[in-house]
């Protein structure tokens, strides 16, 4: 079985919900799809109530017509199981399928993401829905992928989840002695003597002031792991049901990028291909999107992913929903392809008439016009992707730099009491990835379990938790001549979230050649400048570790307070390489300076590291052809000296090394070298 759906070009289209419209509208839609070169539609995402209107009644009349029409029009179909939201009858007949929230309130029917993942009734009926849809549509040549559920997320704290949590804990720890040791339960007289004494950590038990404030980090950390696994079990239930009828067609579900509640690394082996929904918070999030694309590509060891959803214009879920400026949708779509997307899909194809997404952007608006700016831009991009053909399909990113991303470290750092709740894992990662992005460096965002032997540089910001043999594998990177960079709050705890009984940064200490005895946390207004030897003076905020070199060289020093003149940034010779330690919350200029030193040592900066907001990315096709993507995120044109020659696949123009090339405002070039 191919891990990715077999297609001849980049699939283009998106979420289509014709069940909301009379059939005469379907005809208009498909005519407009033809005009926009739409070749792929995701169908049936929220059709459970229509397909199963009563406990023992299954009615496929509408879904049959929808799929038949799409196939007759030549569309490829990503067919959903329809289980993204409960039907009302199910919640009424079985109230236990409704979730209980963090405050202990049993919810009544409403919204979506509303099913308890531990409910036997939900698990049975959702799997049966997937089973019947697969039985009906398996073998249909139009169906190229299965889409299970929708944007899994949230949490439940009901009695069913409490019982399932205890079962999960038995599997993890086997004995109460092991559990008590992991949770350090001698603290505050919490020693458990029976599994049934254990309660989910919530506002009624271990928490105050919300989900991040917990008396026992180990308990809360395990509940986060459990809840992610519980929803994974829901996905697996439906995938197994599909496989009874269809052993081959790839199965996925749509992820949500850097989404804290679900550990996508734990999910990744169970998906045939990764897909995700890209809804950035504003129109200046190009570096953030690059990080998330890289994260999605890294879920399956570099395998391309699908961009399952993006808006062609604006969202509707935020307090303020800015409009994508002309050219931005095209630019961001090509950015996704540059970072490994093998499909470009939208939500939504036609705007819903009512409910909370009626003002969400769509390819086709309420008036059904083809002469809007948004539709014209969608059609123009469709024509470009059609001309591109299949050359990018399956292409890989030849990165020699890895950025470690770890949900356990994210959870553990942000539920910790001390040193500072103002330090947010995602913001630290974004700063270090931004430095790589600005340098034009291809980077893989990978789990801490990844094979690091292919990388010359490994960046591990806020690596709060060090598990297994990770410290040894990082040392091996340096031993063979590579560089490892880590930061404040790294190497603090083991996999149970208990402190290492050694100097900070724990198992990373020998590689870094330092120790940390004290640290100082301050509010965001307090600045302690850091001066780099032969470099700039930059600001540092939030956290200041008092770094004591144990063989490392001092690269940057604090300028103020009683620790003025002491080390803030160090570099340690380890084997043939280096371990870099950044003990302060440097501003972006400081982070970028450090990362640039590391990249330049290994000659890994991209062709235009000093041109702001011009992004480069490389993909290598199956036959070894290198594709260089140039993306101008500026609102003005830029001129560049060509560092590589080839043919621009979007214009067929030949580019020669040394010539001046012009990228229009928000312009794109795809250079086949």
UniProtKB/TrEMBL annotation:
Residues 399-605 form the Beta-galactosidase trimerisation domain. It comes from Phytohabitans flavus. Zn(2+) binds at residues 116, 156, 158, 161. Belongs to the glycosyl hydrolase 42 family. The active site is at residues 151, 309. One of its GO terms (cellular component) is beta-galactosidase complex. GO terms for molecular function: beta-galactosidase activity; metal ion binding. SUPFAM superfamilies: (Trans)glycosidases (SSF51445), Class I glutamine amidotransferase-like (SSF52317). It catalyses: Hydrolysis of terminal non-reducing beta-D-galactose residues in beta-D-galactosides. CDD domains: A4_beta-galactosidase_middle_domain. The lineage of its organism: Bacteria, Bacillati, Actinomycetota, Actinomycetes, Micromonosporales. Pfam families: Glyco_hydro_42, Glyco_hydro_42C, Glyco_hydro_42M. Gene3D superfamilies: 3.40.50.880, Glycosidases, Golgi alpha-mannosidase II. Residues 15-388 form the Glycoside hydrolase family 42 N-terminal domain. Residues 614-673 form the Beta-galactosidase C-terminal domain. Substrate binds at residues 112, 150. Keywords: Glycosidase, Hydrolase, Metal-binding, Zinc. Its EC number is 3.2.1.23. This is Beta-galactosidase. GO terms for biological process: galactose metabolic process.
